[in-house]
């Protein structure tokens, strides 16, 4: 099939995109409103975008009614009505159901933490709490929000980093089998990451 994206209905474009850009890591974003209400939501338009400074980005679609998702409102800079800070918790096997549950929409100011079986713990630097069950958490400060049509790409600098002690050795090597991150595939499908291989001298072994 040869496809000109412009000629495809946006819903089909979305379907084909999330079926072909796979697997995607999942940012489980905890944020807080200026009045102190916590929020938690997953985003798989997500990746690392630099390490000097350490930067991560995720992209937020509008709500079906065109308004902004709670996460976007919260991570906007203070001058734009947000708190300009948030935590990206990594989505892992042990709480993948809660990740999916947290994507259910709630009225602004109502916290997903009150509805799903996960706990909060204070972050070191940012006001937003991190997910206590998360083995890796990136405390971020919003650097830039880039509009992409009706979407908004949130680029954040990681100003503090939590990695659970048992996952990392003295050479900063991460035990990714133990970390057990989850990837998002097409539709409601996810993947495990426990089937790995090494490429040495150009050959898989
Ligand atoms: C695994 C997963 C990945 C998702 N990725 C995105 C994404 O990249 N961008 C987006 O706008 N919504 C994404 N969603 C939907 C949001 O999580 C959902 O709209 C959520 O209700 C937003 O919450 P908020 O209004 O509290 O910010 C995803 C949902 C799931 C389950």
In short:
With 205 residues, the protein is mainly beta.
What does this structure look like?
With 205 residues, the chain is mostly beta strands. The protein has one domain: Pnp Oxidase, Chain A (Roll). The chain has 4 helices and 14 strands. The protein has a 7-stranded antiparallel β-sheet. It is globular, with a radius of gyration of 18 Å. It starts with 9 loop residues before the first helix and ends with a strand. The site of flavin mononucleotide has 17 residues, from β3, β5 and α2.
Using the 3D structure, state the CATH architecture.
Roll
* Number of continuous helical runs: 4
Q: Which structural class do the helices and strands define?
A: mainly beta
How many β strands by DSSP? 14
Biggest beta sheet attributes = 7 strands, antiparallel
Assigned CATH superfamily: Electron Transport, Fmn-binding Protein, Chain A
Ligands (ions, cofactors included): flavin mononucleotide
> Would you identify the regions where 5 or more consecutive residues have pLDDT less than 50?
none
Order of helices and strands: HEEEEEHEHEEEEHEEEE
Total number of distinct structural domains: 1
Shape: globular
Strand proportion: 25-35%
Distance between the termini: 34 Å
**Order of strands across the biggest sheet?**
3-2-6-9-10-5-4
Give the oligomeric state: single chain
CATH C-level class: Mainly Beta
- Fraction of residues in helices? 10-25%
Estimated radius of gyration:
18 Å
